[in-house]
Queue: 4 jobs
Job 1
Amino acid sequence: MKMLALVLNAPRDLTLERVPVKEPSADEILIRVKACGVCGTDLHLFEGTGGAMDSEYPLIMGHEFAGEIVRCGDAVTDLKSGDHVAVDPNVYCGKCEPCRSGEVHFCQNMVGIGTTAPGAFAEYCTVPSRSAYKVDPSLSLDVAAMMEPVGCCLHGVDRANIQPGCTTVIIGFGPAGQIIAQLALLSGSARLIVIEPVAEKRAMARAIGATTVIDPLH
């Protein structure tokens, strides 16, 4: 079985190719990709400036994605064909010291779906079943694909310890800033200050609920 995939052969060398579909092993699932975002990491990989992990070419990028399960490995019991899932692209080993200490994001043997392993800029993607999270069929898969960036932003909000009644300042109102702003308001931030040079993004900040919007160029 083959599929269409965007293959990054070298910096700025992206081709649409037919490549083999990886059959799922016992603890893996095969997903038909329905939605995949384009992250800043993808742009860095495309330009050859690297990402958070050491990547090698050729590479199928794409790590912010959701889709429908086509096939499950024999050992997978909690998911089934037809389930809608979103994917955590960071596959930790569970055995190194950071993993055993509960800091899996510092795994010394991390595999990154879409950064060090084939990702979702393709019709199908094979991932460990433990990396997939079942979502309700009523939720749009376009929305479900946002799980990864929202998760990153939620971690930032937790680290910043945003509490009810506090003041939150966001410098730059790109996609991450927009997500963090909404999470900050949901966390009870009483005053939301956004610093952003682009007029359209400042307007979006006001629409989301920023109390103060600053143009740093004036």
Note: The chain has a mean pLDDT of 94.
Job 2
Amino acid sequence: MSVDTNNTELKKGADLATIAEQRDDQRQQAEAEAAQEVLQRMQDTAAEDEKRRAHEEAEAKRKAEWEQKQRKKAEAEQAAWENAVAMGDDEVMIASMKRVGDDAERLTRRNMKQCVTEHIQTKCLSEPEFARQVMHPRKNMIRCFRYITRKAKEFAEQEMKDNDEKPIAGGYGCDVPDDMCYLWAEEYFMDMDAEEDKEKEEKFVPKPYPGKPAPRSNKKADKKKSAPLKEPPAEDHPNDSTQMNLFEVGA
């Protein structure tokens, strides 16, 4: 029986050594995986920083190009205005008449277009300073007629209020004297703060950095980690008194 006991002890020792070796392998594997995860996170962070830096550089370049475009636009407008101011009287009268005529070709209301256009051209021929105003880069006949339309609407509204009349179908209507339209046309070209000349202020709109994309869900089933090995249950060895009793029985 002592030989069997020794074999059992040896087997148990071998099993424990195997378990210890397997646990050591698992620990080393876990440490290697943890180190790999840390390295991957560092690489991801570096890649994200590089993407952000590239985005910021691209935005800075786009903003610089936008600002340069705005400067060129303002410089071109200023140069055109300075050129008009520097023109001689005869030159500016001819240029303003041509400009008014070119603008009028884009309009569709023939009667009004022709009458007002001829009035402005005639005034350009007689007043060089007015002709220079017509040559301002922001001034044109299309905006002039918008100015006249706005003034005519205000005039009609006031006329109906003064006469205690109510709008018909939500609108106002009345006859506007021709001389009033001519006066408004002249006012438009002399008014450097006309509402019709105000353009929507352009602003640079930065594009926000999209940030790191959300991680995709891994559809593949994760490999199941091997369950830790359990120690074999300890065998019940007969105590010394039991062995003695067996020997005694055998005797």
Note: Residues 235-251 have pLDDT under 50 and may be disordered.
Job 3
Amino acid sequence: NVYKNREPVPHMKAVYFITPTKKSVDGLIDDFITKSSSRYKAAYVYFTDFCPDNLFNKIKSSCAKSIRRCKEINISFFPYESQVFTLNVPDAFYRCYSPTLEKTKDREAVMQVMAEQIVTLCATLDENPGVRYKSGPSDKASKLAQLVEKNLENYYKTDEKSQIKAKTHSQLIIIDRGFDPVSTVLHELTFQAMVYDLLPIENDTYKQVLLK
């Protein structure tokens, strides 16, 4: 964890698996401020998403000699089950729909983050899908769809001529939560739902204590 104090191990190399944010990059740089005070011998840096040029240049100017590898691996999402994933943005619903939230920029920022995360999922699956959305009852689905399409175009540009990878046969469908609000309050009639109701599940894991 780059946010916490750690014991220096100057004779060992470190692997950094971090998000491309200012806070994470600052934590990385702090570990290699000077050669004499470096926490590790060298660093292998893997970003979960596209690293903006300003952050990349900051690393380059601060600790480039300590970086052995720097790579973007595009997995800015959380696989929850074999065919289910989440973006792990718990306050997204509030920031997108709250009538009391006055900061429009905050709403646009969270939608941009979600669009970038969805694109990393498409990149992992090697898909450039057609993006479709259900219009109404609000404009959230259309705005998110436009952001996803724009980020897909930017990601799949292959050269200076701005040639873009052809669309694949897959379709990405974005639906506003208001399209089906009832599902959020219905109880699922599955064994999985029953297990969560009856057993003490923590972090999707059930631990059984055997008494001898």
Note: Helices lie at 22-30, 53-63, 92-97, 104-124, 140-155, 191-198.
Job 4
Amino acid sequence: MPSVSPTGRARVPSCPDALPRWSRKPARPKQPELGLPRSVSDDSVPEDKRDGRLVIGRITGCYGIKGWVKVHAYTEPMENFFDYTGWTVRRRGGDEAIEFDAGRRHGKGLVAHIRGVDDRNQAETYRGLEVSVPAGALPELDEGEYYWHQLEGLQVWCSSAEGLVLLGEVDYLIDTGANDVLVVRPSEGSLDQRERLIPWLRGQTVSRVDLDAGRIEVDWFPDE
């Protein structure tokens, strides 16, 4: 049965092919440190590669006076944020490659050091920037499993007495804890202009996913 493995602004599995771990001495050695994979990114991301990147976290502020920053990770567990390479941040309309050379969990979030950033004033310039990695850095999933970003934008079709009816497109997904939910917004040619919330339930509401055709077939009531 199909299952969903979220990514982007949600859970991201750990990358199994991370390079050997290493790190600099942390600012506060009393707390456990997480080793980090060495970055293999270039100084910048080429224009033709800017699309196809996934946001895995956001720099929310500074930590201390030695260039460390606070990071809100969208990965689950949050420490998986450090298992990726090729990090970039978007500023002034362009992508800037960065490298985290040390980091650890701190409270409800993460703290990390950006290579070459050694004082608070420099670190402050990264506040509010989102951190992304190449979509290709994500590990391959088993057959029948999907990342959230693969489902977003797919057409959603539903069986009816007249045949298949277009309900709309997947706008995004919600993790309710009990199960994931497809948020389906109306699109050109859809049955009506209603937004629908369709639970992602294996073998129940979701009957077929065809990424190549760009569609999902659901067992749902068109009037709901």
Note: DSSP finds two helices and 17 strands in the chain.
